[in-house]
UniProtKB/TrEMBL annotation:
This is Rab-like protein 3. The keyword Translocase does not apply. Keywords: GTP-binding, Nucleotide-binding. SUPFAM superfamilies: P-loop containing nucleoside triphosphate hydrolases. PROSITE patterns: RAB. Required for KRAS signaling regulation and modulation of cell proliferation. Regulator of KRAS prenylation, and probably prenylation of other small GTPases. Required for lymphocyte development and function. Not required for myeloid cell development. It comes from the Eukaryota. PANTHER family: DRAB5-RELATED (PTHR24073).
Length: 233
């Protein structure tokens, strides 16, 4: 196969939310039989057709960097993890729909990755006003993916989906909710597949077609996140 241009997408979220299963599904279109804990970082590659079906169609490699650990890790672990955050073109934030804490922690994951040169340990998740405009100015495309959709009790589903809709709005990102053990959630032509393709197209556009050179260097070269307080209803 001829050499293809590529982009780097981080896959971030708490241990146990299903990042490895998600990456395997995205790259191999198969269910991961025996998922295990990720130590450090694991990288897999997805082949993506940018602007498929148009005259601009072109094939790219999407490198998916599954970063292990937790946001509660010691500062030394976070410093080691920071090496994975260089030259990032997009970020997939993954949370467990049955675990509210994993959703809250996405704020800290995003802070750690986008402010890789500073420490987010002073950030407190609490009720209060949240400045969505900070993400509106963020040049790094974000996608929010909720896992274990099948495990939400029917009588709790509306409540959970309402909560994730607010989360999506906070991050200025589209959301996909799925079950990583069922490929039909990403079936060709489905709304989830369209959202995923749209996200990867956006990542490629930011990397290869942006006219603003300041956006290519990474978010931290332009502006840092500075959350005064974060809310999570």
């Amino acid at each position: 196969m001829a050499s293809l241009d590529r982009v780097k997408v981080l896959v971030l979220g708490d241990s146990g939310v299903g990042k490895s299963s998600l990456v395997h599904l995205l790259c191999q279109n198969q269910v991961l039989g025996n998922p295990s804990w990720t130590v450090g970082c694991s990288v897999d590659v997805r082949v993506h057709d940018y602007r498929e079906g148009t005259p601009e169609e072109k094939t790219y490699y999407i490198e998916l960097w599954d970063v292990g650990g937790s946001v509660g890790s010691a500062s030394s672990v976070k410093s080691t993890r920071a090496v994975f955050y260089n030259s990032v073109n997009g970020i997939i934030l993954v949370h467990d729909l049955t675990n509210k804490k994993s959703s809250q922690n996405l704020y800290r994951w995003s802070l750690e990755a986008l402010n890789k040169d500073s420490s987010p340990t002073g950030v407190i998740v609490s009720n209060g006003d949240y400045d969505r405009e900070q993400f509106a100015d963020n040049p790094v495309p974000l996608l929010l993916i909720g896992t274990k959709f099948d495990q939400i009790p029917e009588n709790k589903r509306n409540e959970v989906l309402t909560r994730t809709a607010f989360l999506s709005e906070d991050f200025n990102a589209e959301e996909i909710n799925l079950d990583c053990t069922n490929p039909r959630y990403l079936a060709a032509g489905s709304s989830n597949a369209v959202k995923l393709s749209r996200f990867f197209d956006k990542v490629i556009e930011k990397r290869y077609f942006t006219k603003d050179p300041s956006q290519l260097a990474g978010f931290t070269d332009r502006k840092r996140f500075n959350f005064k307080s974060l809310h999570y209803d």
